[in-house]
Sequence to fold (427 residues):
Amino acid sequence: MTERQPLSELELILLRHGTGPAAPPVPDATASATLAEWDRQDAALAALYGPIAAEPLPATMRAALDHAVRAEAAPRDAWPPRARIAAALALVALGAAGGWGAAQLPSAGSATQTAAVYAAIRAHQTFVGEVTHPVEVKADQAEHLTRWLSKRLGHQINAPDFAAFGFVLIGGRILPADPGTAAVFMYENATGQRITLYAAPGDGSNTTAFRFVEAEATQGFWWVDGSLRYAVVGEVPREALRALATAAWEQLT
Amino acid sequence: MTVLDEIEAAIPALRRYAVALLRDRTAADDLVQDCLERALARRAGWRGEGSVRGWMFRILVNLHHDGQRQRPKGVQLTLVSEDMAEFSRPGAQEGHMALREVQAAIARLPEDQRKALLLVALEGMSLAEAAAVLGLAEGTLASRLGRARASLRAATGRKTEKAARPRDEGTVQP
Fold:
């Protein structure tokens, strides 16, 4: 009888938790006692841990859900942030592989560059919709803006002129970057479309050709030139963006 | 219910399971947060096979497994607030288990058994559902469950079975 015990327990488990046969076997006295014991085990677990399920959700979980709800309501943010990162990185990889012109293979510093281009896209997406504070310092304080951003960037930088493309400077801001601090300029055209020029300290890697990156509707061209990494980002057609990036490259270097 | 609604509805159970599994509320909520974010990020690719709840439990179990591989087992002691221990006051009706004993016994179970037992006994999943979450054959799960139930009984139970202290040392050192 003791030899049958393990099999009988297994049968009981199938009886209790499985889909079960059409006519379940009638438990004998031992089996009934075992089932009662399991009832007590389940009741103890419910008493120990059940109350947790009745608690309100922690704020961080609430926030993640709310963000997802908002994102579903607004088509442009239809992808949650992590998916957007993945998409951006995937497309950076594609861009690097199929880049136009004399695109070089990603150098050892490509991870840092990738992080920078993602930061540029995030910066653009964060501030492009800002009505009241798209920039920290407005373009009417041009001299102060240039001096401040150059100082924080650790490198002299003058906002490129995109007037030929219909984009005028709104102003700029600084953002944390890794390494260092990034300088961000935002431009706007007559229809209210905005583009972002992002400049951050480099990682010492060599000059690269333009690389194209795309995350949902946001597109960007980025390049490394000596001590700085740059990106021009916006929701404008790729060819227009390339023209802007070329103009920026000509004026910045 | 949209997928988003179902994701939200699954969270309380995921938290309950994670606390019981990890016995550390902070670690449990971190795990559930990661699980939630992954589910939100991947929900577009979810094709509706099985339930959202089962899918999220699968994510949680996989994340937990990945986390275990990344860091060595730390010292994690049982943390359940005092008010829960009050359930085990003396004079509780006969047949009512001393919760502290159950808690300690669960902590001593090998983790594979704990994962299996909690899905079925605490979350009320069927063998089929729990097997899908854990990526096991139902038979494997059933025998794991049997061992967990037996250990629990031996640890909390009758005087006649006092001799049968759990032989398999759990993953947690008190």
